[in-house]
Amino acid sequence: MYILIELIGIFFFAVAGSLMAARRGFDLLGSAFLGGVCGLGGGVVRDLILNQSPATFEHPVYFVPPVLAALCVYAFTPAVQKLHRLVQLFDAAGLGLFCITGTLKALENDFNPVTAVLLGVITSVGGGLMRDVISNVTPDLFNPRDIYALAAMVGAALTAVAWHLGVMNVPVGAGIAALAFAIRVASIRFSWSVPLAAGHWHRSHPATGSNDGPQRHY
Amino acid sequence: MYILIELIGIFFFAVAGSLMAARRGFDLLGSAFLGGVCGLGGGVVRDLILNQSPATFEHPVYFVPPVLAALCVYAFTPAVQKLHRLVQLFDAAGLGLFCITGTLKALENDFNPVTAVLLGVITSVGGGLMRDVISNVTPDLFNPRDIYALAAMVGAALTAVAWHLGVMNVPVGAGIAALAFAIRVASIRFSWSVPLAAGHWHRSHPATGSNDGPQRHY
Amino acid sequence: MYILIELIGIFFFAVAGSLMAARRGFDLLGSAFLGGVCGLGGGVVRDLILNQSPATFEHPVYFVPPVLAALCVYAFTPAVQKLHRLVQLFDAAGLGLFCITGTLKALENDFNPVTAVLLGVITSVGGGLMRDVISNVTPDLFNPRDIYALAAMVGAALTAVAWHLGVMNVPVGAGIAALAFAIRVASIRFSWSVPLAAGHWHRSHPATGSNDGPQRHY
């Protein structure tokens, strides 16, 4: 179950990465690389934090999904205006699966529940964060217009509870993944959002906030 | 002493991270996350380099400061035009404390003084660098208008000397931290600066330098 | 041979990093830091993935090349319009050497050939990727106008083959490095390129693609 869920989650994230590469006008190899970073990055960070040699680099099979993803995106390039939404959709699917695998792996390594949930969140948001950072765009993670980390946190918390109750199995996992995915997608569709970091500002602020950043320095 | 200094330093960096989140218009969870990255990132990198499981993920207490910081920034949002200065101020406070803890931890792990000082610098600039990179702004670390890494380097070097002389204790540490903090803040106030990477250019160059970057590629 | 090649490769990458610092208007310390990240980053990531304490931090000698590079760039600052080309040239030289050392180190650690080649590629593109990411520019790695990762991949693959045939020695290594370097440089000169991630788009797209990124979010 474990490896399979991981591979599927990696594929979803890899597609999100390759779609980002398409959106940013990168080439096919960059697409496979970005898909790999997006699909495998979160897990590698998790394993480094668990002080283990990343599983990713022990089974070459982990590198198949990113290559497949890059080829799929190359073959079926969607219309450019759809790209951002599609990145978010596949990203959400990966998010749902990774918040489970990340949390479980931490719990199996005897981490306390709090840390396990945080590692689950890191595993599930890490890949997408790296994708956005190395693509030089403001991370989706920080978009104040919808819910991202919260969806992963809910999924990770439910996973920790289910694991402690000893009721963690495929259907339960599938349900948790579906819930996290649903929260993320619904938040985009219905503009649910978390309050801004800056309590009382007007929502229109981010636009400027996001652009005056680099200029501010010089 | 050690843990306490770390927690205080983490809080200062976390506030800097959450203020950056406010400045960039991110949401409250993004604020806690960015505060966590800024406050804990440097230490995690240091521990990974020391090939240890990051202390951060063994004591959940390390995650309290970022949450507190995000709530403080949410509750007492400063005026937007003050944000950049405040980020720099709290960042400087964290810098002063982390250049000590980072260097000490490396020395206690039998690293040679040169490497220990470098690890101290990496620990103290790492969090702020990650904050700026994932916020998609040009890192403060590279701002040619003031002194950043040099302040951390002075603090780390003095720490290494004090440690080798066996006179490292709370007051000495406090003095070193205060000095590093003072150098950083004074350099911003009085525009002290290190020479540019490009020897003979006019100081007005950076403005263009910082903007033609991304465009250059395509 | 091994250490020497690494040091030379580190110097080339460090010069590329310091030139980028000059191009972006950073200061001298930022130049040494960026050179260090560019020259040592790939190797550190490789060692972390190999779950080893990074060699970089055990021999202070590794920090000499970045300091030298920063001083060279400071002393002989080229004309600004030449900077981007020079960054690419030194980057290509480092690429040629690192795709060999990275692959060999992975093979010596009993990694399977596929993973070893990938680690070689990661080692050789990692430093430049970090340089571009923390300089807040779109990574050269993703530039669709020339060949980057493919050159490293060819070098890494040939290294793996030579190692398995037991014919890996200095001249062979030099030949492989020269080939990878030549592919990279020729691709820039003659605009060889890999197909775009998005199959059927017009090559003029990237320009917009690279700029609408950040704005897209808010």
Automatic annotation (TrEMBL), chains A, B, C:
Ribosomal protein in keyword set: no
Lineage in the entry? Answer: Bacteria, Bacillati, Actinomycetota, Actinomycetes, Micrococcales
Ranges for domain Glycine transporter: 4-77, 89-163
Q: What is the protein name stated in its UniProt record?
A: Membrane protein YeiH
The answer, when asked if Transmembrane is one of the entry's keywords, is: yes
Regarding the membrane, this protein is recorded as: Multi-pass membrane protein
Subcellular localization(s) per the UniProt record: Cell membrane
Q: Which family does it belong to?
A: Belongs to the UPF0126 family.
Q: Which UniProt keywords apply?
A: Cell membrane, Membrane, Transmembrane, Transmembrane helix
**Where, by residue number, does the polypeptide cross the bilayer?**
60-77, 89-107, 172-192
Organism of origin = Glutamicibacter mysorens
Main location, first listed in the record: membrane
